[in-house]
């Protein structure tokens, strides 16, 4: 995995701007820990940081292709194309000649052969930019689900782009201005496609290409979800899913570096791990390496909350024994989670505050530990979205609430009646943001986009709509978090369930099939029943763990108290002092009430974000 950055300006000579390009590229150093490269010519400047995964010696970037001794195209690329070997064979048959073994060159020569439409032939996770010297055009491309990030800022005569907002903010042409729309995005748990927190930035939409030339900018869609008839019966559907998973995992095991799986002990990651273990054993005679994260005394003293019904570690250990994996338990404690440098690094990795607190911190620390052993990790993300794994998908009140069902679920929880992470903020600010109107309007737009089949009954239509908004408004938040927190250490996180073939197939699978045995993720559990222990198959979904140590909550309160006692705290004008005082005077008696903690986490991170990014609030 890598970081990419670039600048095209048809109105200036960028050879003088090499130091600025270097600064932009340097912000992405953690994404590419093995190498860096710049390519500057006239009105184009491209930067790249590389974490080597395929063709360690020959895959340096920016990568240029020449014809008759003259460069015709240059690429900076972040990602993995899993069908690159098949494409390479096809391209060779069409006359393309290769000088490396890298998938990067396959992508660039695919562009030379098919232009921007090459994106339709690429299967994997990717974001890349090609500068076509023949046409004097820049082409930006992002993968179908948006697993790999790509941000850009339009200029009067060009564009700036980068893997993360920090790369753009390193250019003096971009200021860290945040308007009302950006704050809405910040506080929302339903993300608007293409929207960035920073006013002058956009994210390239998943499944899109953006062509930038002297004549202007053209945004094209090369992939989108479609409603198609599902012709397989239930048994055929289960067989098809198993076949797809076998093929997907096999392709995603391709790497020239150590590889592992992130194993939570849930059915999603256990299925991926079991298939990976089988292929590693058959093809290489090796054990797969697995990692699980837990906290001191977490399993022994675990108390269920509203979404977590069991600790991960015992189930992960059982799967590891069942598969004979090389299993590693990552043990974290409260001091790890509250370390100031670590908490700041988590914020800087994401370029924005979040409500998730120790979930993000433990995720970050997990990636750091995994990176000491492996460069690539396979994870179980996206299974809940496509197979139907969330509890709010089964609550009629939430499904009929005229808002995103997970948002409706937030406000019904005792700890967040006003919304996740917003309780300590000034009510005047919250009225200006009007999150209820924001959500309602956004939800209507999302529903209007959802593709449907003719003749669907009311239940199937509703659940297809829920599936669509989950994939396009909820999932991006998780994918962004996963990418930033893993790539902060140069760890490549692969997500087999995000394979577009599987996503398309499950989007068109009837809800009655997905719940055929009256439970969540019925098809997935049936498809891997022979691979994982029965206890895991029967386990109720449990999200990423949160600490239940009362000392963690106490430390958060201490930090909040210090924030309000410091008159220079930049967040003070935006907080509700009465709400803060009440929180400090009435600390939660439930140490693991993580929903209530989110309000403190958000206030603290908001303060740090304003200070470190010198944010200009245009509200």
Automatic annotation (TrEMBL):
GO cellular component, one term: cytosol
UniProt KW Amino-acid biosynthesis keyword: yes
GO molecular function terms noted in the UniProt entry: asparagine synthase (glutamine-hydrolyzing) activity; ATP binding
PROSITE patterns the UniProt entry points to: GATASE_TYPE_2 (PS51278)
Coiled coil residues, start to end: none
Keyword terms of this UniProt record: Amino-acid biosynthesis, Asparagine biosynthesis, ATP-binding, Glutamine amidotransferase, Ligase, Nucleotide-binding
One Gene Ontology biological process: asparagine biosynthetic process
Transmembrane stretches, start-end: none
Site feature (Important for beta-aspartyl-AMP intermediate formation) residues: 381
EC assignment: 6.3.5.4
Binding site for L-glutamine: 103
Protein family according to the UniProt entry: Belongs to the asparagine synthetase family.
PANTHER family according to UniProt: ASPARAGINE SYNTHETASE (PTHR43284:SF1), ASPARAGINE SYNTHETASE (GLUTAMINE-HYDROLYZING) (PTHR43284)
Name of the protein in question: asparagine synthase (glutamine-hydrolyzing)
Organism for this UniProt entry: Streptosporangium roseum (strain ATCC 12428 / DSM 43021 / JCM 3005 / KCTC 9067 / NCIMB 10171 / NRRL 2505 / NI 9100)
